[in-house]
Description:
By secondary structure, the protein is α/β, with parallel strands linked by helices. The chain is 33% helix and 23% strand. It has 15 helices and 22 strands. It has helices spanning 14-24, 40-44, 47-60, 66-90, 150-153, 170-181, 201-213, 266-269, 305-320, 350-356, 373-377, 406-419, 423-428, 438-451, 455-465, and strands spanning 3-10, 30-34, 94-98, 100-103, 108-112, 118-128, 132-134, 147-148, 162-166, 185-189, 217-219, 222-228, 233-238, 243-245, 250-253, 257-259, 292-294, 335-337, 343-347, 362-368, 384-390, 396-402. The strands form 5 sheets. Strands 1, 2, 3, 4, 5, 6 and 17 form a 7-stranded mixed β-sheet that branches. Strand 18 (335-337) and strand 19 form a beta hairpin. The longest helix has 25 residues, at 66-90. The chain is globular. The structure holds flavin-adenine dinucleotide (FAD). Residues 10-16, 33-36, 40-42, 46-47, 50-51, 100-101, 129-131, 150, 171, 260, 264, 296-298, 303-306, 308, 338 line the site of flavin-adenine dinucleotide.
Amino acid sequence: MSAIYHTIVIGSGSGGFTVAVGLTGRGKRVAVIERAFVGGDCTNVGCIPSKTLIHLANERGAADDTAAVFRTVREKRDRLRDEEAEQLRQTKGLDLIFGHARFLDAHRVEVTSAAGERREIGAAHIVIATGSRPRTLDIPGLPAARTLTNERLFEIEEAPPHLAIVGSGSVALEMACALRKLGSAVTILLRGDRVLAKTDPAASAVLGRTLAARGIAVHYGTQPRSYDEATRTLHAAGEGSPVALPGVDRVLLAVGRERNIDDLGLARAGVRYEAGGGIPTDPYGRTNVPHIYAIGDVTPTSHWTHSANAQGRRVVQRIALPYLPALGDAPLYPQATFSDPEVASVGLTAEEIGRRYHPKLIRRVRVELRDLDRGYTDEVGPGFVLVDAVRLTGRILGATIVGPHAGDMITLFTLAIARGLSLYSLYRLVFPYPTLSEGLKKVADAYVRETLPNIPSELGAYLRYRLAPPRRKERHTGRPVPARA
Ligand SMILES: Cc1cc2nc3c(=O)[nH]c(=O)nc-3n(C[C@H](O)[C@H](O)[C@H](O)COP(=O)(O)OP(=O)(O)OC[C@H]3O[C@@H](n4cnc5c(N)ncnc54)[C@H](O)[C@@H]3O)c2cc1C
């Protein structure tokens, strides 16, 4: 055994980095093991390069030299990666070890370097923050050189003339919008009947229409079947008639993630995991082995940098500050997709509300951003603020925003839901004028206008439906209260 640490962190991405810096800041001796690049997916092949690409596409548009755009994306990514690696190297009490980590037992880890050298280290605590990788798809005939995932996308020399994207989640939509702005023809193939299937159907509808208006072809209920290199034709099929897309240069696979749990030796440490579901933990990141933690994409509960970071902070508190008051349940994780328009949401989805509550207990309020004065001055396109709240009490259950800065604006709803603030509280809050955040206030106004004059009937509905089981067939209709009385 070469060294004993207070904590070993496997993976230096969003989650691992947080834990490593947090624990060393409290005087603990920490080893961080990284098999690829410091910063993990977010810095290297995720948030940072994708948001840089989106920013440059917005700034420069199609007329620009797209090779320069991709060069800038890589330069900015590399600079941040180097800064982060340097920060870890400079951190007192922290050893950054490059290599692949595998458990030998519940307290010992073997690290194998790229050159094949092995070393063994041990610790009282071990944090698994190994993240995830893109799921792949076999498309017969498609050469590897034409196949992209988020791991290769930012390495391409210039925007492809015609990009086909398989999938319709955040990565697919963000990249579709950015590449289209840079001048690529973009075609999306998706299995289901709406884009961003995990968000509210109202958001999917607006986004679907906006993609079409931007000239992005979307084929619903369709999966790629084969590729013909001679004609560069991607053949696809599904519920509808077969689709042949000629002249496709690259295919971006954005069909979900696989958690990095294989080849970790989890069984040797006794850590329970689910083959397709990652490593389950309690709200403090503890696995079934009390001193072994898991955070970030490798768990079933995190798919974002902010959630990996939040989980990492909880682990730091748990390990280094156990005398502080317990943090309780896992926090709320808002979600944001930086497509154009942006989509952000927090709290329960319409589907979850439909499963838990009687539809007549819920009031759905929607305000269009273009009806706001700032929407008018800025000629804001389709977008809205949408809230599901309990009748009478105004308790906010879920919120979705579509439009510019949706990812920034959702934070107020995160606070409101987390702190149990009602729409009455938002009604009394003063918002700066003219801003798009006034959409949140208009939602509260509409709710109060609908509720206060009708207190007796609202009280009756509340008493009647608050404990009533949801009605299966009549689940949440999604019919909103009009924002203007
Ligand atoms: C294109 C794209 C865009 C995204 N945009 C956003 C966004 O805008 N906002 C957002 O919040 N999230 C975004 N995400 C998601 C975000 O990147 C991830 O949720 C986040 O990086 C997860 O952090 P993590 O620490 O769990 O894992 P990672 O960041 O993936 O880090 C895991 C690290 O562990 C290392 N590792 C794995 N196995 C081993 C091993 N056995 N030994 C040693 N090291 C190992 C890996 O090399 C990696 O460096 C995006 C993702 C993608 C793909």
